[in-house]
Write a structure and sequence with these properties.
15 strands, alpha/beta, 340 residues, Rossmann fold, two-stranded antiparallel ribbon, 16% strand
């Protein structure tokens, strides 16, 4: 069955697996989601609320963001998520936020980094220090990115958590800065943390599959230079990120969140073109390296993704063909020099 409305999509993205319900039942206290108004934040917060309710755990789920979009804030309020408007770069505003023993840190900056690198570093490396000091007595699960590994051979199966880091460009370097700052405060204060290196979450309004489908539908050529990628359904990424709260440790627990396969851009484009009933043309040739994560550790620990690639392709193609809502934010997955 296809997903036909935004409401159905939000329901699907926030539906907690049974394993997460069990996991959150073992964790006491309220949950604070910092940067809740981003692409993943609303459905992650709602999933946490739904899982807690199903577990019979009385838990406040509180979302913090600048909330430039009042409609998004109202949606969270309607879902039972308490919302607070605050600028996380304002240390005094962060000091006034409520205490919470569990924190999911999602705030960060990627697009627009080129030309305004200073703000990117402030958001990705200064805000973590502010948050780590304020919530030194909490568990903190924080989002990072597979970009910190850098380009790796496609034939190698993707980066694993123990690999050395080789970020390219100021965005990826600032994300490594975020990790190092959090590690410092974890070691200094004894704060249990997890660091989630994500590569790439996809839903029907945003993601690599949406980028490819949209380009095919509009007759654009597909650039094959970044010839391979990972993708994971955003609902599965939400679940694995929330489950990592139970594994927070000092120094931080590191985990890749990614789909089980390395996907070929050419093959996926052909599969989408067939579903869309459109021809597809390519430019350039595949490089032997790409930004790739090996997500097997998270699958072993939290369970395999519940939504597979074939299902995502069906949903995305149908959504794009029907002119479904888009967030209008291309992923930039094809960028190889780290300039976003």
């Amino acid at each position: 069955m296809n997903i036909e409305t935004v409401k159905q999509l939000d329901d699907a993205l926030s539906c907690p697996p049974a394993s997460l319900v069990e996991s959150l039942a073992q964790i006491d206290g309220d949950l604070l989601v910092l940067g809740v108004a981003g692409k993943m934040g609303p459905t992650l917060a709602r999933m946490a609320k739904r899982a807690s309710d199903q577990a019979g755990v009385p838990r406040r789920v509180i979302g913090v963001a600048r909330f430039s979009n009042a409609t998004e804030r109202q949606k969270l309020d309607d879902w039972g998520i308490e919302t607070i408007k605050a600028d996380l770069l304002d240390e005094s505003a962060v000091a006034e936020l409520p205490d919470a023993p569990n924190v999911v840190f999602m705030a960060g900056r990627k697009f627009g980094s080129t030309g305004n690198e200073a703000l990117t570093w402030a958001m990705n490396a200064v805000v973590p220090a502010i948050v780590a000091r304020r919530y030194r007595d909490s568990r903190i699960a924080t989002f990072s990115t597979g970009n910190v590994y850098g380009l790796v051979p496609v034939s190698g199966g993707g980066s694993v958590e123990s690999d050395s880091l080789n970020p390219a460009g100021e965005y990826a370097m600032s994300c490594l800065g975020r990790e190092r700052v959090l590690e410092h405060f974890s070691r200094t204060h004894g704060t249990p943390m997890s660091i989630i290196r994500l590569n790439y979450a996809c839903e029907l309004r945003y993601g690599v599959l949406v980028d490819l489908a949209t380009r095919i539908a509009s007759g654009q050529q597909i650039d094959l230079t970044m010839g391979s990628f990972n993708v994971i359904w955003q609902g599965d990424a939400n679940a694995h990120a929330l489950a990592s709260l139970a594994d927070c440790d000092n120094p931080p627990f590191i985990i890749n969140v990614a789909g089980p396969e390395i996907l070929s851009v050419r093959t996926v484009a052909e599969q989408l073109a067939e579903r869309l009933g459109q021809p597809v043309e390519y430019t350039s040739n595949e490089s032997p390296t790409a930004l790739l994560n090996d997500g097997r550790f998270s699958h072993e620990r939290y369970g395999p993704p519940e939504v597979g690639v074939s299902q995502m392709l069906d949903w995305v193609a149908d959504w794009v063909k029907r002119g479904g809502e888009s967030l209008g934010k291309p992923t930039g997955f094809e960028v190889r020099d780290g300039k976003f």
